[in-house]
Amino acid sequence: MEHFRGKVEEVKLITSSGGVFEVTVNDEKVYSKKETGEFPDPQAVIKQIEAMDA
Fold first, then answer.
1. Where are the beta strands (DSSP E) in 1-54?
2. pLDDT of residue 1
3. Which residue from 13, 12, 23 is spatially nearest to 48, judged by alpha carbons?
4. pTM for the complete prediction?
5. How open is the CA angle 11-17-19, to the nearest 5 degrees?
6. Terminus-to-terminus CA distance in the chain, angstroms?
7. Which of 38, 43, 46, 47 is most buried, by CB atoms within 10 Å?
């Protein structure tokens, strides 16, 4: 979160069941644990989000 200081207006955690973990930015899915079966590498997610801003 600190990496995007000043660029992120809101972070929202939406609870669910069944081990679902997804990262979305502006309604665009960046990562889905449900689809991959594993938690994301934080640096990889940061790079994906940075690429969206380019």
1. 22-25, 28-32
2. 63
3. 23
4. 0.69
5. 80
6. 18
7. 46
Domain range summary for the chain, segments of one domain joined by +: 2-53
Q: What single letter denotes the amino acid at residue 52? A: M
Query: Once rounded to an integer, what is the mean pLDDT over residues 12-31?
Result: 82
- CATH homologous superfamily of 2-53 equals Glutaredoxin (3.40.30.10)
Q: Residues 22, 31: contact at Cβ < 8 Å?
A: yes
The residues, ordered by sequence, that sit 6+ positions from 40 with a Cβ below 8 Å of its Cβ are: 21, 23, 31, 33
Enter the tokens of residue 31: 């990562």
CA-based nearest residue to 23, from 3, 4, 39, 7: 39
For residues 45 and 49, give the distance between their C-alpha atoms in angstroms, rounded to a whole number: 6
Predicted confidence at residue 25, as pLDDT, reads: 83
